[in-house]
Amino acid sequence: MIYYLIEDFSKDIVFPEDKSSFKVVALNQQVYYCLEQCGIDFEALEDYYSSGEMRGDTKAYLSEQLKWLSDFDYVVQDIFDEAKRLEMNVASLYFHHLKYLVDNIILTTKILKKFCNTANPTRIIFCSQKYANDEFDCFLAFRGAESTYSRVCGVVAKQLGIEFERVQVINKIVNNAHGYRSKFVLFKESINKILKPLPFKFSFSEFFQNFQLKTNAASKQNSDFDGRVLFLTQSPYILDMTRSLLKKNISVYWLSRRKMINAETGDIVENVDALNAGQKLNLPQWASVEQKLSDAKILDWIDDHAGAQVTPLIMSRLKKCLLFYVPEIIKSSKVFEQILTQFKINAVAVHVLYTPEALGALDAARRITTCKKIGLSHGCDVSDSPSRLMFLEKIFDYYYTMTDQEAEHETTLARQWPGVSTKFYSYSYFQQSYGEIIEKRKQKTANKNKMVLFVPVMDALWPSRPVELCQSFPMEYISLHKKFIQYFQNNPQFDFVWKGLINQGQGFDYMGQVIEDSKAKNILYSEKKLKEWLVKADYVICDIASTAYFESIFSKIPTLGLYRIGDQRVRPNALKTFDKNLQGYTNADEAIEIIDNFLRAPAGDYILPPERYSSGGAEEYESFFKNAEKYNTVHVKCE
To answer: How sure is the predictor about 180, in pLDDT bands with cuts at 50, 70 and 90?
Structure first.
């Protein structure tokens, strides 16, 4: 049997006349829709596997990966004398990024092998566009580049003795389908096209945040605390936190586009980029680096877990990692050791680890006893993810979660692993920020029909697949979501809002198209911000219990979170805390029954009081740095 694996679709693809001689498999939601519209019978690749099955024994995998990581650290120290002198475990610092690269290629290989062993194709024809370049960033190794399916499929076919052919799709029609794009998204894309040719990068969000901060910063008042804090990233709640800290006797600095800014004045006090450029680091020849990787069996470990020789497919990424990002981390560590000492910084805080500069600053703080490393969770979820602890949170002295239960769970995990000294606490930024929504809801006009807000898993622009039972793959939800839409249509006594999201460059949301084609009068597809709907909704349903789920609960709305039993591992204390607000299912019928019971029960049964999930809720943002035991916060003081 011939199998057409289609990543990009065009009507120019010629299928055999004998329909019994071939099958068509869709690899993404855009192709899924186009094949439907063209009346072509097809399957989805997800029909052949489940994400939980492919991830397997994640605990055993993690244990092996930690050993592999330790070997990788030694290799980096062997390559760079400066890393060895500074006792830097650079691979460990960078491993959150490495993990998504390595795990992605391993899982993709296992998925394609599972497909081949189940379908038994005699020939595979892979249909995709031709990529003109292969650029990537340090965080998401395959964003905007040739997919892992495209890279791996030929390798798997060759290993299994399957004839393989690649068809280049030129006149693809994927994006001719109606894509749900807001006017604001289109405006931003137009501006980005204008700014792209400029010799410098410009960020609207950072410009407005800096402007807003500079014009609104309050003068310091006397206080019993004289701290100096450097935020390594920016976000709206860090902006709020900064304003509050400035009201006390606390100096705040920001790292913004590789420049250190005095948050009170808006002045640039240090050019980190220039200091980094002044650091000299001898780069080795790539051939010698490859040999060291081979000797340490770094590459063998990846191939062994993939069950195929796939490391040649990621060598370009490893090369840039080891000859660009790793040197940048080492140089940044040396530079920030000077900066943190010079400015007497006693705490560095970060909520997202994207850049070499942030990783370097955290490593520098490791060598300064008076400077603490503080991690700020940028969201919430109910996942039991030990790898997140081992590869992200353990590098901090203190880590702040959004709820007490998350901090409790991470503390329990930390005790199970040697070498983890991180102290976990919770802080209640979200609960404070959603107080405004609670007040607005008290004044809202009653809806003619009860309004139900559905927040689905968002389709990723690129594969994001760690070997961890934290989230199912988006394509696994298509058939489930279609049945949800059918259920919504059959319940006209409710008005349903489907909270869509179009990421920049995505251009298409399959379920938005399904809703439009259905002509359903009681289902609205919307890209509006979540907060706008939280003010209006009577119920909220989330098929992934992550940040949106918590935001709804914090807004005191009847909320239901779902998870896929077998594909997602949920924290035991989350199940206890949220009880019927968080329910698992194994198939669509079970999920729909859970939703139906939720919508027919008294709304008050699904509103959780704040004391169920957090001991905090009224403290000032500066209590993050002040001693307030009842809020589970910690005092970080310059010694």
So the answer is: very low
Q: Is 458 exposed, middle or buried (0-12, 13-18, 19+ CB in 10 A)?
A: middle
Buried b (16+ CB within 10 A) or exposed e, 299-311: bebbbebbebebb
Q: DSSP 3-state assignment of 37?
A: helix
Helix (H), strand (E), coil (C) string for 113-159? HHHHHHHCCCEEEEEECCCCCCCCCCCCCCCCCCCHHHHHHHHHHHH
- Residue 410, CA distances (Å) to 142, 413, 414, 592 in order: 30, 5, 6, 32
Return the bridge partners of 2, or none: 22, 123
Which of 210-214's residues contact partners 24+ apart within 8 Å by CB, and which partners? 210/254, 210/256, 210/261, 210/266, 212/239, 213/239, 213/242, 213/243, 213/263, 213/266, 214/265, 214/266
User: Judging by beta carbons within 10 Å of its beta carbon (0-12, 13-18, 19+), is residue 224 exposed, middle or buried?
Assistant: exposed
Amino acid at 82: E
User: What are 446-492's pLDDT values in tens digits?
Assistant: 989 999 999 998 755 556 688 999 888 888 999 999 999 999 999 99
- The rounded distance, in Å, linking the Cα atoms of 9 and 31 is 6
Q: Is the dihedral of CA 294, 92, 571, 104 positive or negative?
A: negative
Helices (H) and strands (E) in the chain, counts: 25, 19
**Two tokens, residue 126:** 């892979």
Edge-first strand order for the sheet with 259-262 is 268-271, 259-262, 250-256, 227-231, 347-350, 372-376, 398-401, 423-426
With 0.85 as the threshold, say if the pTM is over it.
yes
Q: Is the pLDDT of residue 581 over 90?
A: yes
Q: Looking at residue 391, what is its pLDDT? A: 83
